[in-house]
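Slide 14.
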Amino acid sequence: MAKTGYMSARATRRAYLKNIIENQKNIKVVRENESFLNIKQDLIDLNWINEEDNFINSFELSDKLVMEQTPALRLVNEIYNMTLKPHLNGIEISRFEIFSVFQGKGFASKFLDHLLLFLISKGVKEIYVMPIPAGIFRANGLANNKVLLESIFYKRGFRLMHGQPYWILSDMTYLDSIFDIEIDYNLLKKL
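Slide 15: predicted structure.
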């Protein structure tokens, strides 16, 4: 007897791949913007991975698969899996994942504080995030916890944009309170 509403992992993967193939003709192409160019070389110098135009970003929005081909800068090390990409006139934090052994120890907060201060110091006009679960799914992981993701970004001044799935950094109260700290570039560096 078949289970109602149940799909095996294999069937789920097949359905996902089928959706990707069907949507390839609808891939949105994103280009570098001024904000991305302002941070690109500094992050490459800190050993971030430069994905040029071959990074495919996909996410579900209202049961629709959205795919973008975009330049991206990625930091993948023992602690973080972070992706930044151009969005409108600014930068989107597209992935923000802390690996499980480092979770709950303040790494995410400290890293995000220094990253935001770095982006602002480089003249990034707008900073966006879509705090939706992504990445490696773990029950206690930041990347899989929508409430935790929203709270970490809300504390730092991100607010939901009206009629959009994106949040934008608009309340500078928290960042103004830490603005005098010196940016720790070792946090932003691939070890």
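Speaker note: The longest strand covers residues 90-98.
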